[in-house]
Amino acid sequence: METQEKKTRAPKQEVKQDTWEIKDRFYYLLGNKNPLTFTIPSRHSRRYPLLWFDEEKGYNREIRYATNQRSPFVDEQDGSATLKHVIFNNGTLAVRKQDVILQRFLSLHPANGILFTERDEVQEANNSVVSLEIELDAMNLARDLDIDFAEAVLRVEQGSKVSTMSSSEIKRDILIMARRNPLAFIDIVNDENIQLRNIGIRAVENGLLQMAEGGRAFKWTSNNRKLMNIPFDENPYSALAAWFKTDEGVEVLQSIQKKLK
């Protein structure tokens, strides 16, 4: 008998745990525009269908926000429903942990991830850490640059003004530049042509070289001998930096460096 009972006893059904975390949640509208008030649909209609596909059941389920119900699913709501608008003020919506139904409703809403999203504090913290680390790397990089290289990097942002600046001013502005836009700063520092561009600019400023033929060529100022043609639609000093790497350009570069010392 006991053996037969064991054979015929129905297997226990696994009780699913509700993993919803009870906490205050904060939502914000996506995009750059934050109207004074913005209302999202809170009930299903032909114009604004609020349907959520239940993979376990295999069909779409209608959702709506009813303050007097325990579930956002219409097929789980009983009696008359007390409906309420869902309004974002100045692009944001704070939902206290006591209003679990609204939080669940927003998590299922078709506009979630399109019109609005929930703030992910952990992800935001991770992003902040990454941003701060990049800024720290850029600031340390700026601090350790020798003055000539710092001048070359700063010239990208401030142009010929750098030639009249003192070493202290260059050091100050290079740190500000690194803090203001750390990623761009790191990219500029890692650009192998930056130093060569700076040498070309200084050579022109000091009268060693000149741009001629309507800005389409570089020449020696002393004897008017043409060194190179500037390709169309290319920055003159970028072209000169690339030319400095050629066999002929290396000799000119070495000569300019000696005269600039």
Overview of this protein structure:
This protein is α+β, with helices and mostly antiparallel strands and 261 residues long. It is built from 9 helices and 10 strands. It has helices at 2-8, 100-108, 121-144, 147-158, 167-180, 182-189, 194-205, 236-243, 247-260, and strands at 25-29, 37-40, 51-54, 59-62, 86-89, 92-95, 116-118, 209-212, 217-220, 226-229. The chain has a 3-stranded antiparallel sheet, with helices on one face. Strand 8 and strand 9 form a beta hairpin. Helix 3 packs antiparallel against helix 5 and helix 5 (167-180) crosses helix 6. The longest helix is centred in the middle third of the chain and has 24 residues, at 121-144. The protein is elongated and about 100 Å long. The termini are far apart. The mean pLDDT is 87.
Concise overview:
With 261 residues, this protein is of the alpha+beta class.
Which structural class do you get from the secondary structure elements?
A: alpha+beta
Counted beta strands: 10
Q: For this entry, what is the oligomeric state of its chains?
A: single chain
Overall spatial form: elongated
Unreliable stretches (pLDDT < 50, length at least 5) are none
The total count of helices amounts to 9
In angstroms, what separates the terminal alpha carbons?
105 Å
Secondary-structure element series: HEEEEEEHEHHHHHEEEHH
Output mean pLDDT.
87
Largest sheet, if any?
3 strands, antiparallel
Calculate Rg over CA atoms. 33 Å
Strand order of the largest sheet: 6-1-7
What proportion of the residues form beta strands (DSSP E)?
A: 15-25%
Helix content: 40-55%
